[in-house]
Amino acid sequence: MQRSPYDTAAALLPLVGGPANITSVAHCMTRLRLGLSDPSLVEGEAVRAVPGVLGVVPDGDTLQVVIGPGAVVTVTAEFQQLLTTEKAAAAEQLAARGAELRAARVRRNATPLKTALRRVADVFVPLIPALIGCGVLAGLNGLLVNAGLLPSLTPALAAIASGFMALISVFVGYNTAKVFGGTPVLGGAVAAIVVYPGVAKVTAFGVALAPGQGGVLGALAAALLAVHVERWCRGRVPDALDVLLTPTVTVLVAGLATLYGLMYGAGVVSSAIGTAADWLLATTGPLAGLILGGLFLPLVMLGLHQALIPIHTTLIQQQGYTVLLPLLAMAGAGQVGAALAVYVRLRHDTSLRTTIRSALPAGLLGVGEPLIYGVSLPLGRPFLTACAGGAAGGAFVGFFAVLGNRVGATAIGPSGWALFPLLTGNRGPALAAAVYAGGLLTGYAVGFLATYVSFNGDPSRT
């Protein structure tokens, strides 16, 4: 009988130290993310053994419990409800003690680069559902337009799909201020300058600005500056005048800096990203695909893949699609091929084969964490052979890029089979889909063969 989300949440709560040990609860597409006062209270092996849990990733003062797409949403809701209703007598004392341990652990383990990447990911991850929804609608609208169907509906679909992307800078600014400790609406207000049509009347460095210049990178920089200006004001403005002067000075200073520096600079960087991506694929397509497809699984394992979201978003704003996502998606194909080989090899390991059967549908749709943490990474060598499969698939797609057939995705989030509705390219969606399918098949095949040949079927000797 399938375990209910409540049962899974109820089993997890005592194993992670109880209610008093939880400082925050969140989730992404596949993982329940728990902030912990004291990570040493977590019973890692017991958590892994809970039915419905596909893997556990300790990450400093955060515990990531891999549950899988869809199920993680309901389990997170039940977990939050349990935290609300259960009372812990020693909650305050344990939280205080945990805060000290947390601060000490952060000082020991956190690096500036790792912290910065996680914060940038925190800015963009909440935007992914809208990016997916609008991207799917954009792809559907493109198919209808190309087929000449429903001409009365396609303008409405275009408006629905494009509205969010036209104002995404505002959302980026809002989230940036929220993540970095500022007032969210001030971050959004400053970022809105980037997309305001009136900036065309402003000249910076002898050139008239263009609405949207700098894109999400400009919005990110503008909101970060707004946070710092606001903090400076809070420490110097008298309380009686704070409500009037702090927002005014924040918007004024950050706004002027955005118009006369940040938009221009971010525009240069954004253009460089697009130029570099085009050059990389046009000149070193197979090599670039091999490297990107082969190294993406380790990035997913570390949770650092989300730091690529600003680059994808910048390319989508500039070119209408990101050419990097189809290459990176090949890592998931290698993972699927490796998991199938393990399934064939370990005929008598009922538990592992059950995990593979439950995780494969998500893997085929491009959600690789269940297979990573439940299968390949614990076994060791299959993780490396999965990377080899991803590298082969990436090289396949990159080879066609050298021939002038670029494959891109109109949105980020999905991969695997789920990416097909979002595919397009410089020579149309049909050819893009064909090249992408060839890359997936290559990744499946190489991942399977490399794993089958190198994996002896005994986890203890891998």
Describe this entry's structure for a reader.
Among the domains are: 5-110, Glucose permease domain IIB (Gyrase A, domain 2), CATH 3.30.1360.60; 125-276, no CATH class. With 462 residues, it is α+β, with helices and mostly antiparallel strands. The longest helix is centred in the middle third of the chain and has 64 residues, at 239-302. α9 packs antiparallel against α10, α14 runs antiparallel to α17 and α16 (369-379) crosses α17. 67% of the residues lie in helices and 7% in strands. It contains 18 helices and 8 strands. The strands form 3 sheets. It has a 4-stranded antiparallel sheet. Strands 5-6 form a two-stranded antiparallel sheet. Strands 7-8 form a two-stranded antiparallel sheet.
Output the keywords.
four-stranded antiparallel beta sheet, alpha+beta, 18 helices, Gyrase A, domain 2, 462 residues, globular, two-stranded antiparallel ribbon
Rounded to the nearest angstrom, the radius of gyration is: 24 Å
Instruction: Count the beta strands.
Output: 8
Shape descriptor? globular
How many alpha or pi helices?
18
Alpha-beta content class: alpha+beta
Q: Specify the biggest β-sheet.
A: 4 strands, antiparallel
* Beta-strand content estimate: 5-15%
End-to-end Cα distance, whole Å, is: 33 Å
Order of helices and strands: HEEHEEHHHHHHHEEHHHHHHHHEEH
Q: Unreliable stretches, pLDDT < 50, 5 or more residues? A: 87-99
Average pLDDT reading: 85
The order of strands across the largest sheet is 1-2-4-3
Approximate helicity band: 55-70%
